[in-house]
Write a structure and sequence with these properties.
heterodimer; A: 278 residues; alpha/beta; Rossmann fold; two-stranded antiparallel sheet; 7 strands; 12% strand; globular; B: 333 residues; 2 domains; five-stranded mixed beta sheet; 23% strand
Chain lengths: 278, 333
Amino acid sequence: MATSLSPELHQKLSETARALRMLSLQMITEAQSGHPGGSLSAADLVTVLFFHYMTHNPHEPHWPERDRFVLSKGHGVPVVYAALAKCGYFPEEELMTLRKINSRLQGHPDHVRLPFMETSSGSLGQGLSIAQGMAMAAKLDQKKYKTYCLLGDGETQEGQIWEAAMSAPKYQLDNLIAILDFNKGQIDGYTEDVMNLSPLKAKWEAFNWEVQEIDGHDLHQIFAALNHAQISRKKPHMIIAHTIKGKGVSFMEDNIDWHGKSPSLKERDQAIEELRRH
Amino acid sequence: MEKAQVSKNETKPLKNYVDINPQKKVATRAAFGKALVSVGENNQNIVVLDADLSVSTKSSLFAEKFPDRFFEMGIAESNMIGTAAGLALSGKIPYLCSFGCFVAGRFETIRISIAYNQVNCRIIGTHAGIGIGEDGYTQMALEDMALMRSLPGMGVLQPADDIETQRMIEFLSNHHQGPVYVRLTRQALPQLFNQQYVFEYGKGVILEEGKDIALVATGGVVHPAYEAAQKLKEKGYTSSVVNIHTIKPLDETLIQSLAHSHQWMFTIEDHTIMGGLGSAVSEVLAGTQNHAVLSRIGIQDIYGESGTPEALYEKYGLSTAKIVEHILRQLES
């Protein structure tokens, strides 16, 4: 659905993204473990998809016509749980059970425990293939839904990603929209030091994808890219979204140490305060 | 612990569909290819994926008949596994086909994309065991059952003849929920059953009943096990011969009953003895008392090699003569 971003909508979505960031940090702090960096980098992308762009219905979660969202970077799930709760899939209180015993909110997505997550993930590099299967099913069933797949940049070091990069253009999956949360960081350091990905755009173009490169925190650019991706060029779509790991919290931004550790209560309060003021 | 459920002297009538004919031979992969076309005809949700081996796995027969529901994924098994999972999450029943070693070898992808999601994928691994012959170890699935058996909720199946394969595929296409791994042979296998055969998931099939020895076999070595039982009669021993087409969930009741009504029990499989049928049977008997002496016949923690299937079965102890030799050695020790 092509759509435009009014000032009112911009304001509303910015507020939502801020709330998702706060909830993510609260959940992770409550669990005393988790991945804040990659939740904060993806918050704006997730907000636009869940609160405006995707067609879905919390009252009928298995509606066959719904758009699919595959979180390939499974460690970024706190921000998606926060989005699901805010949309009304489950009560917000449940968010604070993240990573605790008997919770549906596993540290990485578990489709069987929580079917609102379209697939289990967290073993990196698998989500794009799964999203591809969903896009193929849509074509077979002549359904209009789109499949969105959120990838981490580090996980594109996995070979399986490039297997899917080869096969999706073969099947002309113009209903598959991959979004790469290019936050430049992974556990062992900056991606360019650990295993350089560049030139990313040229790589995906060479594999015959329709590629766009945007600022993944600019809602206007996210809107424009998603609008562009609705138009069929008989190719799958790749949106490379430049993001900042830990976006919105000064001491987390671009700091690899915040890939996978929980803030202390004091750090959480400071982070929430910053997000509130910003 | 569980008591014997079949007394030593009790004989049950064999199923009327046991109909062994060594002259009529079909590879289970060929039976699979034929069955797939038949189920594809009636069930539009059946889709098939292959990784550049469709001519060998026989999924090519489906591809010719239903090109829109066949996906050639190239030499990229992990992507095939994930794609199949995505199709299954969207309501399809995907058969994803390759050699057993290549598909089961992508264990981590199967583990998360298929098993943990508990989706209706049917993983087809052909070219099981050293029975593939000349291609040698790199193409032999010898550890696949061990890998697949370790995944919660994953069914592990291996048919032993043409009709059993067909009925199994019909069942998996129309009546089964959850992921399964199906292990098929390259080589042709003799007929064991006639058209009356009924496939019962999770149940062993008794081919012959005897008093002294229980031979519990799966897949391509069921017929050699049956032949071994005939040879053992010449030595004065009678055997019960059982075909285990469902390695997981195993027919534990039958295994317990056989183990308590026979003096000796042998498992026979063209697979490593670690983690396959032999292990599964051992796990059932562990903790029970007064059961048969159990010995596992299979690949003994070594790699395979090139050779004719017959030469390999002879060298690695799976020919009828070698099975008999192993059993007599055990009985007379």
